[in-house]
Design the sequence.
């Protein structure tokens, strides 16, 4: 029988019965690594694991540490850790974590090499590789890998269909992805997959399919409702959008800032201010007005409804600014004509650290194009180039539109040729810009070039090409283009197209055809159409037809004074004084007013507007001086065609022709 050794003097009572510290278990370390919220904490645990030699054991700890590094944004550290881990201890999870870390590090070739060397490739590995191809813009490789995955018998997951839906760029691929998701059972039972399918159909322009996916889903969430509302908004389906918005609470969800902002944007697009005010009251009641995305939508609504003061009050009361709210306010100023305030807000937002977006520059450039501010426009263009936005198609389109409206077609062409990926809006902007600057043949050449680039035209394209045909007098070509758009592109003629046809016929001198077309197609806008025909008749000297069109216009009781003046002058030339007096009285009784012509000059930040009555009485001497300078400038630079003759190898004006040019200018001066 053993007896206890008596305690000696060296024994300390505190040490008696004290157990040695236990090492943390693998489960505890895994849970600790999964809860790491900072990179410093993960690095500290890494150091402790190295000192305790725990990383040389089972691979689960190294895998958890690498997963923590990758999750916290240190993917290169995860790659280095797993690459230096013992090869024998690596397992399927190690390879999947390393593959995900390589893809996060944007090292797609190394990830593909590892993927090909993996002894066992499961659904997680395939999903990671597919996601890597999609993020790199290589959708074809992603779909090819999916086919390989199916051939090898690897079962797809819900995440697979979510990734593929985000990579779809055509309707055919979209339908194939949805069919595969339906066979798998993910399309109806998984809300995430259903949401990505809705967004996919929105991108490819299939509204009915997106709505069908939404109404067939067994599990819905607020993201589902917001997604289908975005689809309805993009396609202008206001009634369906508001129906979805009203059904949010019936589905048991709470209205969030995204659903409210979408509904407000729809109210702005359709100019339904009554419904917009109701949603605004709901925002105030629920406190959603504190969200910046809601504030920007409200500012847009207020500016469209001519409540700029309320929009400024809301904007000034915001604690913080972001790009969305600043864009909304700048656009509101631009729409209201407050150009200087728009530019001032832009500069103030830059000083406050708000980063401009492509929509910011689009709004600013619209200011410059509307008010003819070439100097401000070129300054904004310089800032666009400095910030690297020149390659953005939205900014490039706004720049091209500005230069076209300012008449600087050379700059517009250079920018257009520089854009690599041209969309339909960019092509339309260039075609319409050429048409409005009198370059009808160039606009038509641009249209045929667009068709060769496999860009499908729309109703705006048709308006541009009809305007071009009207400028150059190509009536037959215009009618052929109308048939082409109807048969090949299913474009239905609208008011703007019919107006172009009337203008095209009038410019070509086909006044009877123009009148018949206007009476048959433009019953609601006969006055505007007849005004175009009447002006063309007066320009081309067909006074009999002008009288006939003016009489038709007078029966419609227009507010324009043009038909009354034409008829009064016609009756006066025929000595029908009673009829002439009757026209003047009718114009007075109808309250018709003559449109006032204006001239304007832009000097730095100020626009000076003049009427003829303001210029001529006070500036006759200055006008004479300018005309004299123009005459000598024409002689020096041979601007006047036909006023120079090649004599002894040099261009000089002949005496008779130079006198004729001078006399023409003097006659014009005497008429002022």
Sequence:
């Amino acid at each position: 029988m053993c007896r206890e050794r008596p305690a000696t003097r060296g024994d300390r009572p505190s040490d008696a019965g004290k157990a040695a510290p236990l090492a943390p278990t693998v489960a505890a370390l895994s849970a600790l690594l999964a809860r790491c919220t900072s990179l410093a904490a993960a690095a500290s645990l890494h150091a402790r694991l190295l000192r305790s030699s725990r990383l040389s054991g089972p691979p689960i700890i190294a895998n958890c540490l690498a997963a923590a590094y990758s999750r916290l944004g240190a993917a290169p550290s995860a790659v280095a850790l797993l690459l230096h881990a013992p090869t024998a201890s690596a397992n399927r999870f190690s390879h999947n974590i390393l593959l995900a870390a390589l893809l996060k590090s944007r090292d797609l070739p190394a990830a593909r090499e590892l993927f090909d060397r993996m002894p066992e490739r499961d659904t997680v590995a395939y999903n990671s590789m597919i996601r890597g191809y999609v993020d790199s813009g290589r959708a074809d490789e992603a779909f090819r890998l999916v086919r390989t995955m199916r051939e090898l018998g690897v079962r797809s997951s819900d995440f697979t269909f979510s990734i593929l839906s985000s990579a779809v760029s055509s309707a055919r691929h979209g339908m194939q992805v949805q069919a595969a998701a339906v066979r798998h059972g993910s399309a109806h039972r998984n809300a995430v997959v259903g949401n990505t399918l809705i967004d996919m159909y929105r991108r490819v322009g299939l509204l009915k399919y997106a709505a069908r996916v939404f109404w067939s889903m067994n599990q819905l969430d607020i993201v589902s409702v917001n997604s289908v509302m975005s689809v309805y908004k993009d396609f202008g389906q206001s009634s369906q959008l508001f129906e979805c918005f009203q059904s949010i609470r019936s589905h048991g969800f709470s209205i969030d800032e995204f659903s409210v902002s979408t509904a407000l944007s729809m109210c702005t697009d359709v100019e339904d201010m009554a419904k917009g005010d109701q949603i605004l009251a709901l925002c105030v009641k629920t406190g959603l007005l504190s969200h910046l995305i809601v504030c920007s939508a409200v500012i847009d609504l207020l500016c469209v409804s001519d409540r700029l003061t309320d929009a400024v009050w809301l904007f000034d009361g915001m604690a913080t600014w972001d790009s969305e709210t600043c864009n909304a306010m700048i656009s509101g100023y631009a729409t209201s004509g407050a150009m200087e305030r728009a530019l001032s807000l832009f500069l103030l937002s830059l000083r406050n650290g708000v980063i401009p977006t492509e929509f910011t520059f689009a709004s600013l450039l619209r200011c410059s194009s509307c008010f003819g501010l070439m100097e401000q426009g070129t300054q904004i263009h310089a800032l666009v180039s400095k910030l690297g936005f020149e390659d953005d198609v939205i900014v490039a389109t706004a720049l091209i539109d500005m230069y076209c409206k300012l008449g600087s077609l050379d700059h517009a062409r250079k920018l257009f040729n520089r854009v690599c990926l041209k969309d339909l809006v960019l092509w339309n902007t260039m075609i319409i810009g050429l048409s409005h600057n009198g370059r009808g043949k160039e606009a038509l050449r641009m249209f045929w070039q667009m068709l060769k680039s496999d860009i499908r035209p729309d109703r705006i394209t048709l308006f541009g090409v009809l305007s071009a045909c009207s400028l150059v007098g190509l009536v037959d070509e215009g009618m052929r283009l109308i048939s082409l758009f109807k048969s090949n592109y299913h474009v239905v003629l609208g008011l703007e197209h019919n107006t172009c046809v009337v203008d095209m016929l009038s410019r070509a001198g086909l006044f009877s055809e123009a009148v018949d077309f206007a009476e048959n197609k433009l019953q609601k806008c006969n006055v505007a159409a007849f005004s175009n025909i009447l002006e063309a008749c007066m320009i081309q000297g067909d006074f009999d037809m002008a009288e006939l069109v003016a009489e038709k216009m007078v029966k419609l009781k227009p507010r324009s004074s043009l038909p009354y003046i034409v008829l009064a002058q016609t009756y006066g030339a025929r000595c029908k004084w009673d009829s002439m007096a009757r026209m003047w009285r009718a114009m007075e009784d109808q309250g018709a007013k003559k449109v006032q012509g204006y001239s304007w000059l832009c000097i730095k930040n100020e626009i000076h507007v003049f009427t003829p009555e303001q210029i001529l009485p006070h500036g006759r001497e200055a006008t004479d001086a300018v005309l004299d300078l123009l005459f000598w400038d024409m002689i020096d630079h041979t601007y006047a065609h036909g006023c120079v003759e090649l004599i002894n190898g040099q261009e000089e004006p002949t005496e008779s022709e130079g006198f004729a040019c001078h006399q023409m200018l003097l006659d014009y001066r005497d008429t002022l």
